[in-house]
Amino acid sequence: MAWICLFAAGILEIVWAFSMKKSAGFTLLIPTTITIATMIVSFGLLSVAMRTLPLGTAYTIWTGIGAVGAFVVGITVLGEAITPARIVAALLIISGIITMKLASAH
Question: Where is the signal peptide (predicted)?
């Protein structure tokens, strides 16, 4: 159950990062509301996952999902640049997430 909560928290981190970008510095009501609501739920799910998962594992995977997800959303939805260096960076984050998961005793 902790891994499911952690994955959901990571997905919500992607949502709040995207909606924060769309909020124009918290000047638009709907994206700002989505940002705040998904932040709260994401943090709540992360805290549930941390009841049983080690801090380093949970936090690293949560931020990794958010970082790579935001990278993908930035490219696919916002038209941000895709460069070899950015792809390598994302692959390194993914390899770190996988290694953390494999290294976890849970």
Answer: none
